[in-house]
Specification:
The complex is a heterodimer of chains A (327) and B (171). Chain A is mostly helical. Chain A is built from 14 helices and no strands. Chain A has helices spanning 3-8, 10-43, 59-69, 80-97, 115-123, 125-136, 140-171, 176-182, 191-194, 196-209, 221-224, 234-259, 270-291, 297-326. Chain B is an all-alpha fold and 171 residues long. The chains are: A mainly alpha (327), B mainly alpha (171).
Chain lengths: 327, 171
């Protein structure tokens, strides 16, 4: 094989993509933690982290070093295997979720035909990690947190799938690149205008699936200490944290690709627009977190089963009907 | 990337076997469940090799993401204190082991016999079936089987509800 053949080989592209994704995930974790602390600071009328670096920008890097240097403690009576499997199981699938995300027409790690399905499938593994963490910790708070995580994620996966299906029906494809391609003709071609209800349902369900406030019941600190990660120290906790922030990027990227025209936008090149939109959505998620109080568990499930699922079903039926009539 | 097919096949085979052994030999129910999940991943990989990525992703989405989690939930709700010890101590006699080995080997023997009798000369990688044709088959020639599966699921659900109400009644 010549050099150019090796470089243009799909396997090389995949490996390069994975490495870049790992870098992206790590750097984004640092930036998002800093961003969240700044946003909450400004919302609560205080400056947030300020001491380390200009405007505290190095704070999360220092925090990361602290987490890595900390001792890893396994609680007595815990299932060692499950206890340490859980944080790894939480982070690993996220990397795969980035593979089909279309940052721009040429900038996709692996253009999978069923990209949307791949992301949905691998992001579902996270709840398994939470279960293993809750069970392996041998701690009642952790177990209650895990039980909550299960019922929440099983419930909210349904409206999430229903809203995604609407877009899949409309585009006739499960490939994120194809969906993004269909919205690349200016602001009015974005799916947001055709499927506003699906976007709202998707965004609410995604907030719940990533365990973000106001739906952060699995780790509600005022009732459960820290929920499923009560017993984790050092990087055990750090990996869960990283996974949570990375899932935020994944759901916001999917929302951008499905509804907000992906890489479409004037002046700037495509990837910048994509990242800009993703960060705008993440800002909205943070805004939610510090604006709404945490919901009660019955409110959480009622919202899903009585509102989001019926609305999602109706929306799906309407989409199918319109598509059939338009044929 | 055909040259990757053989190592991938070996890896998935290893995953399936390791998961199965883990599920059978584990002392705690939750660890056995982890073995089952490993096996499910291996089977999903096999679907990928048979160029059926839709089935593979559905396997992960439904079996790993939903069914295993529900099994986890069931274990948590039924045995909250201990790790769920499997079986009684007396059930590990020699006779049972022999019977177990026979029961495990019988399907393998039948499959091996079938493969030896009618071995395919060549196994070409088939082209990927499109989602649309899959849907047409499910609503066309296989519609009856498809509907029968939903009836079976409905019966299971109704049965579960019935059992739930039975237990709640005071005796």
């Amino acid at each position: 094989m010549t050099m150019t053949e090796i470089i243009s080989h799909p396997l090389t592209k995949l490996v390069l993509g994975l490495v870049l994704i790992l870098v992206f995930v790590g750097v984004n974790g640092l930036i998002l933690v800093w961003m969240e602390r700044k946003v909450v600071g400004f919302i609560q009328r205080r400056p947030g982290p300020y001491e380390v670096g200009p405007h505290g920008i190095l704070q999360s890097l220092v925090d990361g070093v602290k987490l890595i240097a900390k001792q890893l403690v396994t609680p007595r009576g815990a299932d060692r295997f499950l206890f340490w499997l859980a944080p790894m199981l939480s982070v690993t699938p996220v990397v795969i979720c980035f593979l089909p995300i279309p940052f721009s027409p040429g900038l996709t790690a692996m253009d999978v035909n069923l990209g949307l399905l791949l992301i949905l499938a691998f992001s579902g593994i996270n709840v398994l990690a939470l279960c293993a963490a809750g069970w392996g910790s041998n701690n009642k708070y952790a177990l209650i947190g895990a039980a909550r995580a299960v019922s929440q994620s099983v419930a909210y996966e349904i409206p999430l799938l229903l809203s995604v299906l609407c877009i899949a029906f409309q585009t006739g494809s499960l490939s994120l690149s194809a969906v993004a391609e269909g919205q690349s003709r200016g602001l009015l071609s974005w799916n947001l205008w055709v499927q506003p209800l699906a976007f709202v349902i998707f965004f609410i369900s995604a907030t719940a699936e990533t365990n973000r406030a106001p739906f952060d019941l699995p780790e509600a600190e005022s009732e459960l200490t820290a929920g499923f990660h009560t017993e984790y120290s050092g990087m055990g906790f750090g990996l869960f944290f990283l996974a949570e922030y990375t899932y935020m990027i994944v759901v916001c990227s999917v929302a951008t690709a499905l509804f907000l025209g992906a890489h479409d936008g004037p002046f700037l090149p495509g990837p910048w627009w994509f990242v800009l939109k993703v960060y705008a959505l993440i800002l909205a998620l943070m805004w939610f977190r510090w604006t709404f109080p945490r919901v009660r568990f019955d409110q959480l499930l009622n919202l899903c089963w009585k509102w989001l699922i019926p609305l999602g079903l109706a929306n799906l039926l309407a989409t199918a009907l319109v598509l059939k009539l338009g044929e | 990337m055909d040259f990757l097919a053989y190592p991938a096949y070996g890896l998935y085979l290893l995953l399936i076997l390791a998961g199965g052994l883990g599920a059978v030999l584990a002392q705690s129910l939750v660890r056995a469940l982890m073995g089952l999940i490993l096996t499910l991943f291996g089977v999903a990989g096999m679907y990928l090799l048979m160029s059926a990525p839709f089935l593979a992703f559905m396997q992960i989405l439904i079996y790993v993401g939903a069914v295993s989690v529900l099994i986890f939930f069931a274990i948590m709700l039924t045995r909250p204190s201990d790790g769920g010890e499997a079986g009684q101590e007396g059930s590990r006699g020699l006779g049972r082991i022999v019977l177990g080995v026979i029961a495990g080997l019988a399907p393998v023997a039948i499959l091996a016999w079938a493969v030896v009798k009618k071995s395919p000369t060549d196994l070409p990688l088939k082209p990927e079936a499109s989602l649309a044709s899959l849907g047409q088959y499910l609503t066309g020639p296989y519609a009856l089987a498809f509907e029968l599966i939903s009836v079976a699921l409905l019966a299971a659900m109704a049965g579960a509800v019935l059992l739930g109400f039975e237990r709640r009644r005071p005796r």
